[in-house]
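Need a sequence for this fold. Nothing fancy.
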């Protein structure tokens, strides 16, 4: 989901654009850091190493915090926007599923 958000953050309709903004590049890099932290955490848990696991958790938290700041989704902005009742009929999720 983080990569999808990075594609949509600039308002582009397609991820096929040739040139990514600096903000998108930074979000991709932070996503990679987060994924690497998750891999390290998994390895640490399998090895039952509390030191490696706690270090990996710290890395993932740092990456996620930076991602939230760069993507500007902190605090109240982290929640989906309120959609007026009269507009909900146009959005598939409010109709109980996908596009009909």
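Here you go.
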């Amino acid at each position: 989901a983080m990569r999808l958000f990075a594609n949509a953050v600039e308002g582009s309709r397609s991820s096929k654009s040739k040139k990514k903004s600096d903000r998108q590049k930074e979000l991709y890099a932070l996503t990679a850091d987060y994924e690497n932290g998750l891999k390290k955490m998994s390895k640490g848990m399998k090895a039952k190493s509390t030191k490696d696991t706690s270090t990996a958790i710290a890395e993932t938290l740092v990456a996620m915090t930076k991602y939230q700041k760069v993507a500007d989704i902190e605090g109240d902005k982290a929640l989906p926007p309120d959609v007026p009742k009269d507009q909900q009929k146009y959005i598939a999720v409010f109709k109980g599923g996908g596009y009909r």
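For context: Residues 22-46 form the longest helix (25 residues).
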